[in-house]
Fold this sequence. Notes:
Elements: E1 14-18, E2 26-32, E3 35-44, E4 58-65, H1 77-80, H2 85-99, H3 104-107, E5 111-120, H4 125-146, E6 159-167, E7 170-173, H5 177-180, E8 185-192, E9 197-204, H6 211-237
Parallel strand pairs: 4-5
Antiparallel strand pairs: 1-2, 2-3, 3-5, 6-7, 6-8, 8-9
Helix pairs in contact: 2-4
Amino acid sequence: MxxxxxxxxxxxxxxxxxxxxxxxxxxxxxxxxxxxxxCAASLEDKPPPWLxxxxxxxxxxxYSMLPRATHTRTRRESSAGKLSGRxxxxxxxxxxxxxxxxxxxAIGERQIVLDCDVIQADGGTRTASITGAWLAxxxxxxxxxxxxxxxxxxxxxxxxAVSCGIFNGTPVIDLDYAEDSTAQxxxxxxxxxxxxxxxxxxxxxVAVFSPDELSAMLALAQKGVxxxxxxxxxxxxxx
Length: 239
C-alpha cells in the first residue's frame, strides 16, 4: 500500500487556476496534491542575443523554490549568488518541453519566459511546472493573437509531465515526497497530447530496474498524461 493509500495507477488530485498573476501575459497556479507551483509567462519583444536576425523566437524557463516550500527553510539561491545544478537542470527541462510543441518561427523575433515558482513542494515539482507552464504559455500566445502580434496560436500540441517510480517493488505514478524519498527507481516522463515522447528521465536510486519495469512505468505515464491533458482542456473550456 502506498503511504497516500492510492492505487499504483492513481494520481493525486490535480487542479489548474488560470489568470492568477495580474500583470503576466499568461499565468496558472497548478496543484498536484500538496505540490503547488505558480507559472507565469512573460513576453519579451526581442529574442536572445544569439538568435537575433534568424527570424524565429524562443521559449525558455526559470525555476525556483520559495524558502519554506519544503519542510525546513531552504536558502534562496539568489543570496548564494549562483543557481544549483538541480535548478539549472529543471529549468532547462521545462524550456525543452515547451519548445517541443511550439512553432518557434511563428513567434517572430520574440522570447517568452516562463517563471515557475514552487510555493509548496511535496514531490513532482518539475512535472507540475511543465504541465502548468503549458497553460500559462497557451494563454500568453492567445494574448498575443488577440492583439495581432501573431496570426495564430503557435502551439502545435499539448504537453504534460508526470513522475513514476518503483516503490516497494511496484511501479507507481505521481510520487509524493514520502514515496520519492524512498523509491527504488525515480523517473519523469514528458509526453505530448498526441502521445509523442519529449523526454524520459529514469534513475536507479536503490536498485537497478528492468526493461519490463521501465515499460510498466511508461504505460502508467501515458495514462497519467492522458488524464492531465484532459484536465488542461477542461481548464481552457472554462474560459
